[in-house]
Every structure is written in structure tokens, then in C-alpha cells.
Amino acid sequence: MKETGKKFLGIMFECCNIYRRVYINKEGNAYEGRCPKCFAEVKVRIGTDGSDTRFFRAR
Ligand SMILES: [Zn+2]
Predict the structure, then answer these.
(1) What are the extents of the domains in the chain?
(2) CA of 29 to the centre of ligand 1 (A)
């Protein structure tokens, strides 16, 4: 079993200009979070191709 050690991802919520961490979901296949201000949802799938982008933007 592989342990990536990464349990969260930094997201820039462009809707409200807020930077926040979102956490891995229970299935372990995506990071899921919500804008703290307007509650816009963001979901970032964890790539199986080894992509390791640390910074995503929500709209
Ligand atoms: Zn927002």
C-alpha cells in the first residue's frame, strides 16, 4: 500500500479571492471542498497519471 502523505490541496477560490485547503474525500480519489464564503463546491480528481498539481482554482 502506498502512502502519498498528501491529505490536502491548496485551492484558490477565485469567486471570493480566498485561499483555502481542501481535503481528500473518503474514497481517496479526489479532493473536495467548499468556498467558505459562498459555498461554491470544488472537486479535484487525483490523477492516476502521476500529475501532482498543487494549485487549483475554483470559479
Ligand atoms: Zn466563493
Answers:
(1) 8-58
(2) 23
Q: Which residues contact 23 (CB under 8 A, 6 or more apart)?
A: 7, 8, 9, 31, 32, 33
What's at 56, amino acid-wise?
F
Give me ligand 1 centre to Cα 3, in Å.
32
Q: What is the pLDDT along the chain (59 residues), one digit of tens a residue?
A: 455 556 888 888 999 999 999 999 999 888 899 999 999 999 888 876 555 555 566 66
State in Å: Cα 1 to ligand 1 middle.
36
How far is ligand 1, taken at its centre, from the CA of residue 2, in Å? 34
Answer yes or no: pTM beyond 0.85.
no
